[in-house]
Amino acid sequence: MSQIRLLSVDFDGTLVRNWAPPPFPGELVDLLNQLRRNGVLLAINTGRTIRLVEEALGITGFPVRPDFALTSEREVFRWNGSAWEDFGGWNARCREEHDTLFRSCGPLLEQIEQHLAPTTARLYYDENRFSGVVSTTNAEMDEICRFIETKRHEFSDFGYQRNSIYLRFCHAAYHKGAALGELQRLTAISSEETFAAGDNFNDLPMLNLACARFLACPSNALEEVRAAVSDQGGFVASEDSGFGVCEALRHYIPSLA
Fold first, then answer.
1. CA distance 147 to 151
2. In what order do the strands lie in the sheet with 158-163?
3. Taking the CA atoms of the chain, what radius of gyration do you get in angstroms?
4. Can you list the alpha helix ranges (DSSP code H) found in 117-167?
5. CB neighbours of 11 closer than 8 A, spacing ≥ 6?
6. Which of 2-11, 63-72, 178-187, 191-200 has the lowest mean pLDDT?
7. Pairing with 30, which of 52, 245, 249, 251 sits 20 to 30 Å away (CA)?
8. How far is the CA of 42 from the CAs of 39, 52, 77, 97, 117, in angstroms?
9. Average pLDDT, stretch 178-189?
């Protein structure tokens, strides 16, 4: 049996789907519960905030509560049996570094805001801070990213995470891969013992052999994601979302019942 001790899995589009019933297969629940009984830890690695993780678990009816939630593509939370709590000092450092970043990159944010003024894109604010963009189409977001790339070289710590038409500004050192790395450090689980699965641009930092030996994506993953997984010898499923995750788990762990 492959020695997988940690699962780092995106939620929307990977574990669950919203385009066709059912949102997830019963087989996925059975496999995850079996792995959990064998001591494998589950982390949902998502762009959602911790509040929206709880909301998503409730709305979808997903019955497997994760051990960890890696949220907003950068934070690390642990379920203590009754509530979510910061795991270690990572989240405090993360918030401090993002506060510093946003104080220093005001001129860049102003340029982005001015560029978007005549477009149909919507500016996203978090705690009264211009923190991201929601476009109306993927093509529009492609153009927004191209513009940001021409400007952000002046601010070495400025980065962003994209999920389809959603864009979140962030410190370049914080992403799904970095959050996973911190979780691995805290749990003493290596990348060689980690499975990672995702479907969108913001999953690419964790869909890397430096983060996880066992890489996978469902059939609905973006072409860029499928290529990244395939090029590293990972598993590209023939089915979408949670159905594809089942395929991947059975591929890597043939002994699953």
1. 7
2. 122-126, 129-134, 166-171, 158-163
3. 18
4. 138-151
5. 44, 46, 48, 53, 56
6. 2-11
7. 52
8. 10, 18, 12, 27, 42
9. 98
Report whether 204 contacts 227 (CB < 8 A): no
Question: In the 8-state DSSP scheme, what is residue 13?
Answer: T
- The answer to whether domain 6-73+175-252 has CATH 3.40.50.1000 is yes
Residue 182 sits at φ, ψ, to 5 deg, of -65, -40
Secondary structure class of 175 (helix, strand, coil): coil
- Do 197 and 14 contact (CB within 8 A), yes or no? yes
Q: Which two tokens stand for residue 77?
A: 């939370």
Closest CA to 196 of 182, 179, 213, 184: 213
Query: How far is it, in rounded angstroms, from Cα 222 to Cα 11?
Result: 15
pLDDT band for 89, please (50, 70, 90 cuts): very high
Mean pLDDT on 224-239: 98
Torsion of CA 72, 75, 81, 82, to 10 degrees: -60
pLDDT band at 1 (very low <50, low <70, confident <90, very high): very low
CB 56 within 8 A of CB 48: yes
The percent of residues above 70 in pLDDT, for the chain, comes to 99
Report the candidate in 251, 253, 218, 217 with the shortest Cα–Cα distance to residue 232.
Answer: 217
CA-CA distance, 254 to 20, in Å (whole number)?
A: 28
